[in-house]
UniProtKB/TrEMBL annotation, chain A:
Transmembrane segments: 33-57, 69-87, 129-152, 164-189
Annotated protein name in UniProt: Formate dehydrogenase (Quinone-dependent) cytochrome b subunit
NCBIfam families for this protein: formate-DH-gamm
Pfam family, one: Ni_hydr_CYTB
Its membrane topology: Multi-pass membrane protein
Occurrences of domain Cytochrome b561 bacterial/Ni-hydrogenase (ranges): 23-200
Enzyme Commission numbers on file: 1.2.1.2
GO terms classed as biological process: anaerobic respiration; formate oxidation; respiratory electron transport chain
TrEMBL record, chain B:
Binding site for [4Fe-4S] cluster 3: C122, C125, C130, C165
UniProt-listed CDD domains: FDH-N
SUPFAM superfamilies associated with the record: 4Fe-4S ferredoxins
Organism: Paracoccus denitrificans (strain Pd 1222)
Transmembrane portions of the chain: none
Biological-process GO terms, alphabetical: cellular respiration; formate oxidation
Domain of life: Bacteria
Chain residues that bind [4Fe-4S] cluster 2: C69, C182, C185, C197
Cofactor comment text: Binds 4 [4Fe-4S] clusters per subunit.
The protein's required cofactors: [4Fe-4S] cluster
Record EC number: 1.2.1.2
Localization, UniProt: Cell membrane
Name of the protein this chain belongs to: Formate dehydrogenase (Quinone-dependent) iron-sulfur subunit
Amino acid sequence: MPKRMFSQPGDHIESRHPVTVSRYRGITRLNHWVTAASLIVLLLSGLALFHPSLYFLTGLFGGGQTTRWLHPFVGVLLFFSFLLLFLQMWRLNLPRPEDRTWVSHIGEVVRGEEEKLPELGKYNAGQKFVFWAMSVLIAVLIVSGVMIWQQYFPDLVSIPVRRWAVLIHALAAVAIILTFILHVYAAIWTRGTIRAMTRGTVTGGWAWRHHRKWLRELAGREGGGPAE
Amino acid sequence: MTTDPNLDSPRTAVSNPPVQPMQANLGPGDVVRSSAMPDLPPPTRELTPVAKLIDVSKCIGCKACQSACAEWNDTYPEIEQNVGLYENPHDLTPDMFTLMRFSEYENPQTGDFEWLIRKDGCMHCADPGCLKACPAPGAIVQYSNGIVDFIHENCIGCGYCVTGCPFNIPRISQKTHVSYKCTLCSDRVAVGQGPACAKACPTQAIVFGTKEDMLAHAEARVEDLKSRGYDNAGIYDPQGVGGTHVFYVLHHADQPSLYSNLPEEPRISPVVEGWKGVTKTLGLAAIGAAAIGSVLHGLMTRANKVSAEDETHAEELVEAREPPVPPGREVL
């Protein structure tokens, strides 16, 4: 069996008529949704403490004190949950030459004209951007977050450092919310994507249209012998 | 006259409190600023600004102020180990709102040994960094007489006030998860009594009254100190935070840091200003714009849909068992 270049263990052609392709295993999907739920809780509780006009969101968690207590714990959960996702996904998110071509045709991407775009592996440059932006921002958020975690680390850093930490935490939080919006919107706008994270499969047409190298590799592997 | 119940605030801490029944002031109508409440209604009246003056040159370090503070506020500071310093407790704590800090200073000009004792505690800034940083509506308020007070039932214990304060004053209790600091005895001032520390001070190093009276008194004290050879005597009422309602007379006003690191030019850190100013406003605007933009893009443009042709190609590919990468495409 040839070495995988554009796919990861678990990715396979699930049925041939019509073609459906398995994209994410159950454990990866669970991992994704734990991360997503944590991020949403963090977003709501964090925004509540970020702007007075959103303080009412503390009501979702049972008040300001509970929100203040809950937010950092969910942050730790998100960090470890994302770490597991990171370990599964980082290799296929490394930049490749075709990403440059894809980015230079970004206008066509946005118009949905994919004919002139290069064939892509499991992820396009936009997905890779979301992946690396999330990775970097989560690292920044956990480090700056621990520095301002009053309940358990009140004296970890000096007050001047703490001021920078709280500013950086706020800026990184805004950036990750923007990345989150981009991620969710792209998944909705590119029809047929969300089922990859719900049912775990995509249609053959979706794979052909958006991630042809990935599909080719999987099709080639299917031909090599009995199913794995 | 000093305890006239018709006055809006006590004019001294020394005399006994009024005995006539009187309405407590410092109600909601006296709040000029409240944390995380940008649209606060204006106060219904203006109280006379008050101030506590701490004349460091008169202080004998007896700690009567600390005792009076703990007694009035009903706090029980932890009994600690003696580590060879006069400071006790070691620092401000959630149970110790004021602290005598002792510095030993050898004056290079005179060769004299000087014991510089400063009563540390909340300065009640006109521009309070704690209030600016606080995310909880109504947890920190500023009254029109200048007192900055923590309203504990609204406090969420996040510690942002610690981040915002230029003087390192607020302390968060690990038991109640609420922030504490000197209240300038707002509960006493509201009923015509001066702060407990000023009342207890045996040398009147701590005095209380209107800010105007206290400034006049401070100037007279500076004059007196200068006549005794303290050429650099002066008032510490830092304008970087808009002036303070607790202020000092210092014999070395040119070097406030001699007094246990009293900040030279305190102000709300520009980092805190940036966090609570442009980041908060632009950040929320960017998030809102991105959310609305995506919805509009979704409504006004065609989504990227997989065609029947794509599905056919996929079936052909899977049936033909094509190699992973066709020759010639790898260069991309």
